[in-house]
UniProtKB/TrEMBL annotation:
The keyword Cytoplasm applies. This is 4-hydroxythreonine-4-phosphate dehydrogenase. Its EC number is 1.1.1.262. Keywords: Cytoplasm, Metal-binding, NAD, NADP, Oxidoreductase, Pyridoxine biosynthesis. GO terms for biological process: pyridoxal phosphate biosynthetic process; pyridoxine biosynthetic process. Pfam families: PdxA. GO terms for cellular component: cytoplasm. It comes from Syntrophotalea acetylenica. It is an enzyme of class 1 (oxidoreductase). Its cofactor is a divalent metal cation. It catalyses: 4-(phosphooxy)-L-threonine + NAD(+) = 3-amino-2-oxopropyl phosphate + CO2 + NADH. It comes from the Bacteria. GO terms for molecular function: 4-hydroxythreonine-4-phosphate dehydrogenase activity; metal ion binding; NAD binding.
Length: 335
């Protein structure tokens, strides 16, 4: 049997359980060419499936790593029970320390299975950062937690869909702190990781990477800042000397038109909103968050816990479906 993809359930009080249940019940996973295993809480997943008027039955299982099977509408969901929270007592949008501990357990178990070669990839549901902090983890989020677990110093956040993929040099920083955080080595490292990942996972023999400027009009010859000539251009030159097809610095207000047209495989962005505003304009419902630079494959939904929708059965599952499909495409054929 081919190695499975592992879905982590995310926050038990968010939309994670129900988007997994919805995608499963609607048959969206049936075209995926690998078995799927959900790392989570059987009782909460069963409750989530009931939101869709599905007559589902939860049973214990000894099939491989699965401990339970959720059966309904002629389909079976394999579940690894890593928590047994009181489903009837949990309130949407109110995770406690026990929920935070469960979220961490889902992530670390899935990561360790991937590191051990027992799973082909992991797909993560949305978590609550305050809850994992209450559970004793000071990592700002999934990306940092997985980097620590995998003992990797530098990773790159890539968000993408069929029309546009963006890679971020800096992520969650105040705008005023971005210029000081940029340097030649960080930009070059981002370019190198993106180039290696596109060669390995996306069948690009020589990825075309557009590197953005920081300032309007690429600094306009120094009138609006000198980061382009002082930091960004030297990083691009160094990348080219390594045989990487990197170009720029490009003015961000014009470049995305050409990227969406297909002239580039990915865009290297200097800060969060520079890349995510155009990305979410095009791929708000079906964008995928992928962590590049890890020794494992990790994709994720491109949204949060959506507490305003949790428990209603109205949450959109398209981002999850696309994250699963991307992980399946990235997974090595021989695993």
């Amino acid at each position: 049997m081919r190695q499975p993809l592992i879905l982590t359930m995310g926050d038990p009080t968010g939309v994670g359980p129900e988007i997994i249940a919805r995608a499963w019940l609607e048959g969206h996973f049936e075209t995926v060419n690998r078995p799927l295993l959900t790392a989570g809480d059987p009782g909460i997943l069963h409750r989530a499936a009931c939101l869709y008027d599905a007559d589902c039955v939860l049973t214990e299982s000894r099939e491989g790593p699965a401990s339970h099977m959720l059966v309904g509408k002629g389909r079976r969901m394999a579940i690894r029970a890593l928590s047994r929270l009181p489903a009837g007592q949990l309130v949407a949008g109110r995770p406690d320390a026990a929920c935070g501990r469960a979220m961490l357990d889902y992530i670390t178990w899935a990561c360790d299975r991937c590191l051990a070669g027992e799973a082909a990839a992991m797909i993560t549901g949305p978590i609550n950062k305050q809850a994992i902090l209450a559970a004793g983890c000071d990592a700002p989020g999934h990306t940092e937690l997985l980097a620590r677990r995998c003992k990797v110093d530098k990773v790159v956040m890539m968000l993408g869909g069929s029309r546009l993929k963006v890679c971020l040099v800096t992520t969650h920083l105040a705008i005023r702190d971005v210029p000081a955080a940029l340097n030649r080595d960080e930009i070059l490292s981002t370019i190198r990781i993106a180039d290696a990942a596109f060669r390995r996972f996306f069948a690009c023999s020589r990825p075309r990477l557009a590197v953005l400027a920081l300032n309007p009009h690429a600094g306009e010859g120094g009138r609006f800042g000198d980061e382009e000539s002082r930091i960004i251009a030297p990083a691009i030159d160094a990348a080219r000397r390594l045989g990487i097809s990197a170009s720029g610095p490009h003015s961000a207000d014009a470049l995305f038109h050409f990227a969406v047209r297909g002239d580039y495989d990915a865009v290297i962005c200097m800060y969060h909103d520079q890349g995510l505003i155009p990305l979410k304009l095009l791929h708000f419902e079906d964008g995928v968050n992928t962590t590049l630079g890890l020794p494992i494959i990790r994709t994720s939904v491109d949204h949060g816990t959506a507490y305003d929708l949790a428990g209603t059965g109205k949450a959109d599952c398209r981002s999850l479906v696309e994250a699963v499909k991307m992980a399946a495409r990235m997974a090595p054929a021989g695993l």
